[in-house]
Amino acid sequence: MIQENKDIELNVAEIFRLFGHAQQYSPGEIIFQKGDSTDKIYFVAKGRVRTYCLNERGDEITLFYIDENQLIGSEPLSNIQKRKISVDSVTNVQLYSMNANVFLEKCIKNKVSILNLMEFFINKIITLSNYICCNRFMKNNEKLAYFLYTNCAGDVVQYTHEQIALLTGMNRVSVTKLLNTFSDEKLISQHYKEIRILNMKGLASIFNSIGYFID
């Protein structure tokens, strides 16, 4: 086991795995809810989680899906006392949780790079920026093309039709029809629970009115 106060630089993931508390969740389990206290911060080691809020009627509004190697519940790092959103598990999930103050203390003692720590928050800002940009489109084909373009890992988008509909505000039928159109146009190919991008430039040309955001 790596000891503290040695001349070794750890990264954020290693801090959680060494000093955090491991937790397992099955699909659909609540991790925390809006209004809960914010004493802990979480690292997603495996699986996918969903962030959501409730509207006035009590309906769930999906905001984002967050995959492994990301932080969730980082409110206490900003001295926020209550959770702003709710989070549940989409797949089987493994998390590591730590008290926020202990996390910062371990980062300092174990020489965690500021760049490594900031990377998590920069990724969060990028996700929020893409969400805002995606929802400024009035036409569904532009909105969907932008979503696919900005949510691919390499050339793969790992979202179902239903998940895309929830994130973009489109209905599932419209998503399916447009994906079939994109497939016919050889822009994408569709597979079980994932979409493969075949023509990135072709997708970008659909929403080129804000092309300067993706340079």
Automatic annotation (TrEMBL):
Species of origin reads: Sedimentibacter saalensis
Lineage at the top is: Bacteria, Bacillati, Bacillota, Tissierellia, Sedimentibacter
Q: Which CDD domains does this UniProt record tie to the protein?
A: CAP_ED
Keywords from the UniProt entry: DNA-binding, Transcription, Transcription regulation
Which cellular component terms (GO) are annotated to the entry?
cytosol
Q: Which SUPFAM superfamilies match?
A: cAMP-binding domain-like, Winged helix' DNA-binding domain
Family matches, as PROSITE patterns: CNMP_BINDING_3, HTH_CRP_2
- Kindly give the Pfam families that the UniProt entry links to this protein: cNMP_binding, HTH_Crp_2
Q: Where is the HTH crp-type domain?
A: 138-201
Q: What is this protein called?
A: CRP-like cAMP-binding protein
Q: State any single GO MF term.
A: DNA-binding transcription factor activity
Q: Which residues form the Cyclic nucleotide-binding domain?
A: 25-103
